[in-house]
Automatic annotation (TrEMBL):
Name of this chain's protein: Nucleotidyl transferase domain-containing protein
Residue span(s) of domain Nucleotidyl transferase: 13-233
InterPro entries: Mannose-1P_guanyltransferase, NTP_transferase_dom, Nucleotide-diphossugar_trans
């Protein structure tokens, strides 16, 4: 694993394979990552944010309406490289990463969910990974509705101790923000060709293997429901 990590040499996996059923009542003609915020696909906003830190190679893991994601980015004029890892059946967050294995060149590699946004400095994220000798790193955002997410318990050094499925309503805790920097050997422990959740099946099993949390005070913005989608439109308009 390379500890001299540079953003321009690091692959970015974007997980865009979900059906987004809760959002289909307002965005039914396209996959959730292409839902528009003020005339821009959300996925464009996310990729622009990540590329601003120097990342250049994006592996788009798609499933539902995958042709629309491929078509949009193949026709787009860009200095960035887009690689398409497509699944024929839902594979979950970890299964999608496993399915992209043949395209992943860097060690470690960055992963981001395509339906959420957290305005962190990704160069600082990389520096934390290196300075703390992490093997796997999860971005943790503070949320006061953590009963919707489940929370993550960490020690003073940032080592992850426990994942909690649900918390008391109204409690403020650190939650998984859906941004990861992962050593490539995580691919060895993800089963092939079945639906696997990285949050619920993989991360709890590697708590004792240098799994760390990077805490941020930046808000976590999720566009997965009609209410959150409308809220996101207002936030990005500002």
């Amino acid at each position: 694993m390379n500890k001299n990590i540079k953003a321009h040499d690091t692959d970015v996996i974007i997980l865009c394979g979900g059906e987004g059923r809760r959002l289909q009542s307002v965005v039914g003609d396209r996959p959730k990552p292409l839902a528009e915020l003020n005339n821009r696909p959300f996925l464009d906003i996310l990729i622009e944010h990540i590329s601003n830190f120097g990342f250049r190679r994006f592996i788009l893991c798609s499933g539902y309406m995958k042709d629309k994601i491929r078509g949009y980015y193949q026709s787009k004029s860009s200095s960035l490289a887009f690689i398409f890892s497509e699944e024929d059946k839902p594979l979950g967050t970890a299964g999608a990463i496993k399915n992209a294995q043949s395209y992943i060149q860097s060690d470690p590699f960055l992963v981001a969910n395509a339906d959420s946004f957290c305005d962190i400095n990704l160069n600082e994220f990389i520096n934390f990974y290196v300075e703390n000798n992490a093997k796997y790193l999860i971005c943790l955002a503070k949320a006061c509705d953590s009963d919707s997410f489940g929370s993550v318990k960490i020690d003073a050094a940032g080592r992850i101790l426990e994942f909690k499925e649900k918390n008391k309503p109204g409690s403020c805790d650190f939650v998984n923000a859906g941004i990861y920097l992962l050593a490539k050997d995580i691919l060895k422990i993800i089963p092939e060709m079945r639906k696997v959740s990285i949050e619920h099946e993989i991360f709890p099993g590697i708590i004792n293997d240098n799994l760390m949390g990077y805490r941020t005070n930046q808000s976590l913005l999720d566009i997965g429901t009609p209410e959150n989608y409308e809220k996101a439109k207002l936030i990005f308009r500002k």
